[in-house]
Structures are given as C-alpha cells and as structure tokens.
Design brief:
The protein is an alpha+beta fold and 189 residues long. Helices cover 23% and strands 38% of the residues. The strands form 2 sheets. Strands 3, 4, 5, 6, 7, 8 and 9 form a 7-stranded mixed β-sheet that branches. The protein is elongated.
Length: 189
C-alpha cells in the first residue's frame, strides 16, 4: 500500500513542477517586454516591433532640425516587420534591404486605389521565388512612425507571386540613414 502512495505523491509533485515551470517560462518571456517599452508610442505608429523615436523625447525649443529617428526590433526570425501606412492606409509589411524596390501584391494595389489600367504587368522581375511579371507604380507616400517619404517607386506583383509587402531600397535610399545594431533597425529622416 505504501508503494502506491509514493507513486501517487510523485505524480502529484511532477504535475505541480510542470505547471510551475510553464508559468515561469511564460513570465520569463513576456514580463521583460513590459520594461523595455517607452510606455507609449506615437499615435501614428502602428508597428508591433516599435521601440522608440526621437519624437518621444521633449523637443528643445531652439532645435528645429526636422529629423525623425525610429527604431524597430527584429522578430524571432530576424525580420523587421510591422504595420506601416502606404498612401494613408495601414499595411502589414517587412523592411527588406535586399529588395531594390518596394513590392506589393495586386490586391493591396487595388485597395490603395490603383486601377487595372494603371497596372501594366510588362516588366520582368527576379524574386526569391523566381521570375515573374510586375507593374511599375509610384506610391504617394510611405509612413513608418514619424517618418514620411513621398514619391516612392514600387512594383506590383500578382497575388500568387507575393504574399507580403516588402519595403525595399526605393524607400530606404530616401532616408538620411538606416542602420542595424543590437537586433534593432534604426531609420533616420
């Protein structure tokens, strides 16, 4: 009879240990994010990976440099993803320094107001998934946090060729600078 009692106690102790370890793992991964944020983000910043901007700091009365700096934290795969605004509409996307241009799919282009007559799929482009046809467009503006860039060249690909929006070099080259350090991407206008 004692043997069964020990087995029952052991199983109960093992279950409690597993529950405690699960709670500790959740706390260890989630609680630090409460301490690394700034407490508030600018109203026009939609990125889930947003860290900070210089506009979070009080501006000096005499300083009117007009520059904005934002930092984005890499996701678990090392990508800089978030919600941006293209032509004033919120869009999920990925900043891709390996993409020559901003790239979006046809469905998003239609949502942004481009008509079928504006989307002439005559350009051959090379993507990570191979060659495909694309239409060249100029976006009115792209906004990431407090950074706003106007007249950005982009290519529209068919939906089956592109599943996510890529914010490429045609956007990044219009910034004063961009850099990667300590798992964060800094953009400066």
């Amino acid at each position: 009879m004692k043997r069964g009692l020990y087995r029952k106690d052991f199983c109960f102790m093992l279950v409690r240990t597993v529950i405690f370890a699960s709670i500790a793992a959740v706390l260890a991964t989630q609680v630090p994010s409460f301490f690394t944020g700034t407490g508030q983000s600018p109203a026009d910043t939609l990125s889930a990976n947003y860290i900070s901007t210089e506009s979070d700091k009080p501006a000096a009365p005499a300083a009117a440099s007009g520059s904005n700096v934002i930092r984005m934290r890499a996701d678990a795969q090392g990508h800089y993803t978030g919600s941006f605004k293209i032509n004033g509409k919120p869009v999920q996307g990925l900043i891709d320094t390996g993409a020559t241009y901003v790239a979006l799919n046809e469905t998003l282009a239609r949502r942004l107001g481009f008509t079928a007559s504006q989307l002439d799929f005559r350009y051959g482009v090379n993507t990570a998934n191979g060659q495909t046809k694309a239409a060249h467009v100029t976006l009115d503006r792209i906004e990431i946090g407090g950074i706003r860039v106007r007249d950005v060249e982009a290519f529209v690909l068919k939906d089956e060729a592109l599943t996510t929006t890529l914010v490429g070099m045609s956007f990044l080259q219009k910034l004063a600078s961009y850099s990667v350090a300590d798992g964060s991407l800094s953009l400066k206008q």
